[in-house]
Design a protein that fits this description.
- By secondary structure, the protein is an alpha/beta fold.
- 37% of the residues lie in helices and 23% in strands.
- It folds into 2 domains: 300 residues, 3-Layer(aba) Sandwich (Aminopeptidase), CATH 3.40.630.10; 150 residues, Alpha-Beta Plaits, CATH 3.30.70.
- The strands form 4 sheets. Strands 1, 2, 3, 6, 7, 8, 9, 16, 17 and 18 form a 10-stranded mixed β-sheet that branches. Strands 12-14-10-15 form a 4-stranded antiparallel β-sheet. It has a 3-stranded antiparallel β-sheet with strand order 4-5-19.
- A hairpin with a 5-residue loop joins strand 8 and strand 9.
- Helix 13 packs across helix 15.
- The longest helix is centred in the last third of the chain and has 19 residues.
Length: 464
């Protein structure tokens, strides 16, 4: 490992151009552009087509058919994915899984400034749906597999890559879930590298923070509903379904789940306390010592990013009710989207919401599907420290921290399958989130190429 790190130091010290100058960068850009320009919105585009394109590139790089598996199901022919394997030289060493998703959030041309499925370079950015989430990482993984295949020596560890569909849509066919259940041997690994980490830059693009994601929240939707016999609107009655729902929503909004630390969030908050210092740092330190300290909790939770890292959160996202302008509502309901902290189960969330609402007239039900609860991911030095050391070379003097992802990824399927899954650093995004899941998604050109080189070297470190 020291020898490889020394080589990385020389590579970074040489300051290779972070544009499309090197032949390997031009090859990567061609792959990346093809991915972005292939529409993979569920029920609109085709992940199967994107997976087939990746397979063609892998085979052109020398991968035999036996090491490239395309998969889909008859019920979901356009939601396919790909698994590729680069066998290692040491059969006793556990494999590494490179996990990414090909599908993207829907993007409507009439809403975007540019065609969302045409890669456009403008003002130092690449624009297009998926330029970050998650075609940047998926392209880097496919590119890494191609580059590693061309090396004179194979890595000690076997490297597997799984690019799947369905991550962005709760009700869709999910390729990672299907693999974990039906073809676990294809993705068997000691640990997986996934989205969810990265870093944050300031407005000028200068990196401020580099993060490795160690653990994530699970996503579960609930429906709360009030029902009533209704009647004519000229004869109002106090037990109005809309009013009852509104009262229940007020109670959900006011409820604060208890603080719950794990190894990752303890390390994260300890670093934040040191960095901020003063009263803010002191409040975090008190909360670390006593998670029931209400005053410390209130002070720390003023920051919404810190608030969500402390606890399970639930928020109303959809609303419906009534059936006619001149009728009392017979039914009113809302969707409550919960992000459940690792270590808690959905039963705990059920009971907390029921108690917070405190009204037997309000029906609370989980909205299918029940996604797996994310297990706590170990803060393993064998995974975290190589990422930290390499980050010091690519991002000198930038703080590095483990974080827990407040959202969810396909790690909720690989984790329960016995594969600890980490969101790796490398790709740094802007303070505004780069339009991920929104309009005009984009990535800084230099950040993409620096992240690509970092991730390639990181995989080589892990693979030996």
């Amino acid at each position: 490992m020291r020898a490889v790190l020394a080589g990385v130091t020389m590579l970074v010290a040489g300051a290779p151009a972070l544009a499309q100058g090197r032949p390997d960068q031009r090859a990567f850009f061609d792959l990346y552009r093809e991915m972005v320009e292939t529409n993979t919105v569920v029920k609109v585009g085709s992940c199967t087509r994107a997976a087939t394109q990746v397979a063609a590139r892998l085979k052109a790089a020398g991968y035999p058919d036996a090491d490239v598996t395309l998969f889909s199901t008859p019920e979901h022919p356009q939601d396919g994915g790909i698994v590729a394997v680069l066998p290692g030289s040491d059969p006793k060493a556990k494999a590494i899984l490179l996990l990414g998703h090909l599908d993207v959030v829907e993007a409507k041309r009439e809403d975007w400034t540019r065609d969302p499925f045409k890669l456009v370079e403008e003002g130092g950015y690449y624009y297009g749906r998926g330029t970050v989430d998650d075609k940047a990482m998926s392209a880097v993984w496919a590119d890494t597999m191609i580059r590693l295949r061309g090396l004179p020596k194979r890595p000690k560890r076997t490297i597997r890559m799984a690019l799947t569909c369905g991550e962005e849509t709760t009700w869709a066919f999910n390729g990672a879930q299907w693999l974990a259940k039906n073809r676990p041997e294809l993705i068997a690994a000691g640990f997986a590298l996934n989205e969810g980490g990265g870093g944050r830059a300031d407005a000028s693009g200068k990196p401020e923070l580099i993060a490795i994601q160690v653990g994530e929240k699970a996503v579960q939707n609930y429906r709360i509903e009030a029902t009533n016999p209704g009647g004519h609107s000229s004869r109002p009655r106090p037990d109005n379904a809309i009013y009852e729902l509104a009262t229940a929503l007020d109670k959900v909004a006011a409820y604060r789940f208890p603080v719950r630390f794990n190894d990752t969030t303890r390390a994260f908050f300890a670093q934040v306390a040191r960095a901020r210092g003063g009263e803010a740092g002191a409040a975090i330190t008190r909360l670390l010592a006593d998670p029931t300290d209400a005053a410390a909790d209130a002070a720390v939770s003023r920051d919404p990013d810190l608030y969500t890292a402390l606890r399970t959160t639930c928020v109303a996202t959809l609303l419906d009710g009534g059936h006619a302008n001149n009728a009392l509502p017979q039914r009113a309901g809302a969707n409550i989207n919960c992000r459940v902290i690792p270590g808690e189960d959905y039963g705990t969330t059920d009971r907390a919401l029921t108690a917070a609402i405190g009204d037997p007239r309000i029906k609370l039900t989980r909205v299918p599907p029940d996604r797996p609860v994310a297990p706590p991911t170990p803060l393993d030095p064998a995974v975290v420290e190589p990422a930290r050391k390499l980050a010091a070379k690519y991002f000198p003097n930038v703080p590095f921290t483990p974080t827990m992802l407040p959202g969810g990824t396909d790690g909720v399927y690989t984790g329960p399958a016995g594969i600890p899954t980490y969101g790796v650093p490398g790709l740094v995004i802007d303070p505004d989130g780069n339009g991920i899941h929104g309009l005009n998604e984009r990535v800084r050109v230099d950040a993409l190429y620096r992240g690509r080189d970092y991730l390639y070297d990181l995989v080589r470190l892990y693979a030996g």
